[in-house]
Amino acid sequence: MAITVKLDDLLHDRRMTLTELADRVGMTLANLSILKTGKARAIRFSTLDAICEALACQPGDLLRYETVQEVERAK
Amino acid sequence: MKTQSSPTAALPLAHVVLRVLIFANWFMGVAIFLLLVATPNELWIMRAFHIPHSPEGSRLVMGLRAIAVLGLIAVPLNYAMLKRLLAMVETVRAGDPFVAANAARLQTIAWVLLALQLLSIAIEAIAKAVSIPGQPLHMHAGFSINGWLTVLLTFLLARVFAEGTNMRDELEGTV
Question: What percent of chain B has pLDDT over 70?
């Protein structure tokens, strides 16, 4: 899938751990890990809303559409 | 995703009933097999069942033997079905019935039911063919609308389970 989740970068910028984020948004660490590792098939708007509020960011900061070529170029 | 539903007596009962049916099925198989190999010659069978000693009588005995063979074929078919039903009951007890394995099991059960319906038609055809006026053979087999509807229903249910499994997998990956 070309949709990538930039959770690592956002957590690093805000000096937050995944566990802290999980507590703040009321999600299990397991579910958040699924999202972080790009294994999620879908994200609810309620989840997106909670994460954006906790990280004070826009959905576009968290989710990006990257083609395979762009990913290769970034490496 | 596991579903939480209140425990009922239905599942443990189904488990017990299926185990009993599996045993009964094998028992019937052994009984039919012994009947086929251990019964003495044709004359003995004719005397035992008051079948007239005639060409028609011989045909009747042959027909009975053929029906017994078809009955024997039904035994492993029944076992294949009952075994899979038992496995499905276990997945329901575990709270996770929408798995790909159950869709496959239902598909197999549907094919088995179809085969059993065909066997039933064959048995009835043989019974009709060998019946003689003094010795009509009633097997309570043959074409059954309910039987064929059950076959159709089971194929449909297999499809429903396949879709249900896809939906469940989709839900598992939704955060």
Answer: 95
Residues in chain A with pLDDT < 50? none
Residues of A in contact with B169 (CB under 8 A): 41
Q: Which of B169, B170, B175 lies nearest to residue A31, judging by beta carbons?
A: B175
Provide the H-helix boundaries in B39-174.
Answer: 42-48, 55-93, 100-130, 145-172
B120-139: pLDDT as tens digits: 999 999 998 888 777 777 77
Q: CA B22, B23, B24: angle at the middle one, nearest 5?
A: 90
Q: pTM for the complete prediction?
A: 0.77
Q: Which residue of B has its CA nearest to A38?
A: B173
Rounded Cα distance between A2 and B110, Å, is 40
